[in-house]
Automatic annotation (TrEMBL):
<dbReference type="InterPro" id="IPR013449">
    <property type="entry name" value="Rhamnulokinase"/>
</dbReference>
<dbReference type="InterPro" id="IPR018484">
    <property type="entry name" value="FGGY_N"/>
</dbReference>
<dbReference type="InterPro" id="IPR043129">
    <property type="entry name" value="ATPase_NBD"/>
</dbReference>
<dbReference type="GO" id="GO:0008993">
    <property type="term" value="F:rhamnulokinase activity"/>
</dbReference>
<feature type="domain" description="Carbohydrate kinase FGGY N-terminal">
    <location>
        <begin position="4"/>
        <end position="244"/>
    </location>
</feature>
<dbReference type="InterPro" id="IPR018485">
    <property type="entry name" value="FGGY_C"/>
</dbReference>
<protein>
    <recommendedName>
        <fullName>Rhamnulokinase</fullName>
        <ecNumber>2.7.1.5</ecNumber>
    </recommendedName>
</protein>
<dbReference type="GO" id="GO:0006071">
    <property type="term" value="P:glycerol metabolic process"/>
</dbReference>
<comment type="similarity">
    <text>Belongs to the FGGY kinase family.</text>
</comment>
<feature type="domain" description="Carbohydrate kinase FGGY C-terminal">
    <location>
        <begin position="257"/>
        <end position="445"/>
    </location>
</feature>
<keyword id="KW-0684">Rhamnose metabolism</keyword>
<dbReference type="Pfam" id="PF02782">
    <property type="entry name" value="FGGY_C"/>
</dbReference>
<keyword id="KW-0418">Kinase</keyword>
<keyword id="KW-1015">Disulfide bond</keyword>
<keyword id="KW-0067">ATP-binding</keyword>
<dbReference type="GO" id="GO:0005524">
    <property type="term" value="F:ATP binding"/>
</dbReference>
<dbReference type="GO" id="GO:0019301">
    <property type="term" value="P:rhamnose catabolic process"/>
</dbReference>
């Protein structure tokens, strides 16, 4: 039997888990949960990093109060692309600005004026999204140069949390790859790209890979927690890398695609790097995998963010399953959107953004939550179907099944629609993929399992998976969707 701790911090909530690996099964127990750490002040969206770190400490304190366990390990993962900078005395400079902030508006074009877009893709293999770290750092240099001038250290969010726990500064590669500043061929920062940001000191910080040890908790943290030994290990610190480490492929690896479904839907395959004109044209990304030399070849799809926002705007009056039930009743409502339209990234009002889109495209605007639900879930399923076709074109693979993992895999309505729209077998689960992937890498680092593949077998064995097969013909509606994209 082996025990691990994992902190999985998403854009909307953070949780700490205990995981027990026993008899080829992993059992998870949630120890602590916290949320509400995205702030908006002085016209800036930023992360309340003190609250996040404080909550990790509170959760661990609670755990160690109840369990006098000395000598465990912990891995922390968070969303990608965001970072902090520190001065020579290791004090944070400015805010931990969120990727949903508008400081990067218009920055891509400015950067392309310095280095051609194609060249950036050729070097990094990373999809263009306005919020990538490259454009955030460029914006920082343009708008708050004085901060960058004082900065000595660059740490991605999970790496900063690791630093606070241990005093060690390491940037882990799966997450560093999301910056769009790493050269996928060398596995190191790309000199020419880094130069564009005006912050070459980024190269000062060590790089580490999933499975490496950051260090033991510092003496201050030891006192706070009341334990001497807690090893901080690098999982795939990028939550999506951890999630994908947990895809429970069922014998058809190489012919299966995945969607890591949460606030975002990350849809792709695990493969060698695919960087060519076509992948550039379709804006697919190659983020580093926890498995060396493999890429997470995927695309960001706007995901459940759309429905999360609409749900909030209805004052959380309806649960997700109520929304799905109401959506099913809306037989005659057929308006659709392209979920990846930029306007949906962080609009002031999501319902208005969706309605405006419908009106501009000569469709009826939704009038109730059921109609919003139907529009969002169908549009997502169609975009999944389209992306699946692109994935098999780009990889040359015949994709026979689709694993939907993460919190969004609980949405049975969307799972069935996805199976219908993409005409493919869907395997849903596990819900806690990110935590399971985080723990798998720790178990691998500790020698309890021999490979990530073995971890996936164990995960399959531990999770109640659900299967969906195509039931309804959605071809006509899909045609209409394609006209919008
Ligand atoms: C998912 C995720 C995505 C990344 C987005 C922003 O939580 O990490 O992979 O593109 O958030 O960081």
């Amino acid at each position: 039997m082996a025990k691990y701790l994992a902190a999985d911090i998403g854009a909307s909530s953070g949780r700490i888990f205990e995981a027990v690996l026993n008899d080829r099964k992993i059992e998870l127990r949630e120890i602590f949960r916290f949320d509400d750490y995205l702030r908006y002040e002085e016209k800036t969206y930023f992360w309340d990093i003190e609250k996040i770190y404080g909550s990790i400490i509170s959760g661990l304190k609670k755990y160690f109060n109840e369990n006098a366990e000395d000598g465990l390990s912990i891995g922390i993962d968070t969303w990608g692309v965001d970072f902090v900078i520190l001065d020579g005395k290791d004090r944070m400079l400015g805010k931990a600005v969120s990727y949903r902030d508008s400081r990067t508006n218009g920055m891509m074009e400015k950067v392309f004026g310095i280095m051609a877009k194609e060249k950036i893709y050729e070097k990094t293999g990373i999809q263009f999204m306005e919020f990538n770290t490259l454009f955030q750092l460029y914006a920082l240099n343009l708008k708050n140069k004085e901060l960058l001038e004082k900065a000595e250290t660059f740490l991605m969010i999970p790496d900063y949390l690791n630093y606070l726990l241990t005093g060690e500064k390491i940037n882990e590669i799966t997450n560093a790859s999301t910056t769009q500043m790493m050269n996928y061929k060398t596995g190191f920062w790309d000199d020419e790209i880094v130069k564009i940001t005006g912050f070459e000191k980024i190269k000062n910080t060590k790089l580490g890979k999933a499975g490496d040890t950051v260090g033991n908790i510092s003496s201050t943290v030891q006192r706070e927690l009341g334990v001497k030994n807690l090893a901080v290990i690098l999982p795939g610190t990028h939550d999506t890398a951890s999630a994908i480490a947990a895809v429970p492929y069922s014998g058809e690896e190489g012919t299966a695609a995945y969607i890591s479904s949460g606030t975002w839907s990350l849809m792709g395959i695990e493969s060698g790097y695919i960087v060519n004109e076509k992948s550039y044209g379709l804006n697919f990304t190659n983020e580093a995998s926890v498995i060396e030399n493999k890429s997470r070849f995927l695309k960001n799809i706007m995901g459940l963010w759309l429905i999360q926002r609409v749900k909030k705007e209805y004052n959380d009056e309806f649960s997700f399953s109520e929304i799905a039930a109401l959506a099913k009743e809306e037989k005659d409502f057929t308006s659709l959107i392209n979920p990846n339209d930029d306007r949906f990234l962080n609009p002031e009002n999501m319902r208005k953004a969706i309605s405006d889109y419908c009106i501009e495209t000569n469709q009826k605007a939704p009038e109730n939550i059921g109609q919003f639900g139907k529009l969002i879930f169908h549009s997502l399923a169609f975009l999944y179907a389209k992306t699946l076709k692109e994935l098999s074109e780009l990889s040359g693979l015949t994709i026979r099944s689709l694993n939907i993992i993460g919190g969004g895999s609980q949405n049975e309505y969307l799972n069935q629609l996805t199976s219908d729209a993409a005409e493919i077998k869907v395997i849903a689960g596990p819900v806690e993929a990110t935590v399971l992937g985080n723990v798998t890498v720790q178990a691998y680092a500790g020698g309890e399992i021999k490979s990530i593949e073995e971890g996936r077998e164990i995960i399959k064995n531990s999770s109640g998976l659900k299967y969906y097969r195509p039931e309804r013909d959605l071809k006509d509606l899909y045609k209409k969707f394609l006209e919008l994209c």
